Amino acid sequence: MDEPLAVALKFGFLAVLYLFLLWVSRSALRDLSRGIEPVASAQAAPAETSRRRDEAQGNGMLGAMEPRLEVIAALGYEPGTIFDLRDGATPGRSEHAEIRVDDAFASSAHARIFPRGDFMHVEDMGSTNGTYLNGRQLRGAERLKVADVIRIGDSEYRYQE
Asked: Which one, of 156, 160, 111, 114, lies nearest residue 135 by Cα?
């Protein structure tokens, strides 16, 4: 009677192990595929680049302000480090990310910060652990306001104009 129970427990353990490995590989593949997207979309959007150049020259409200992200606390950066956001940015662990986030809880292309109309917006790129704006998890693109705090994993940044 003990032998069939031991065999059943072994098979149960193997099933759980395989499910865990499947989950890990699925998450890794999702992160890798998202890490490639920002580069491809940046090369395929010359009209967007032209619009941003016009705004930077003063033909829109973004041209008058200087959107930037200030580090509050992030591994590898001194507090107060500034990132220019005029052309938008992608924070993440990937080498292609404009803002490198050295955090185990960050995805390759974790979020994106981008101009839309006269304002800057932030949206999560489907990251595993989510992106937080002022302590609330993002569900879609949201407009950034001065002093908004963006949290990715344990890293925190403050939006400034």
From this structure: 156
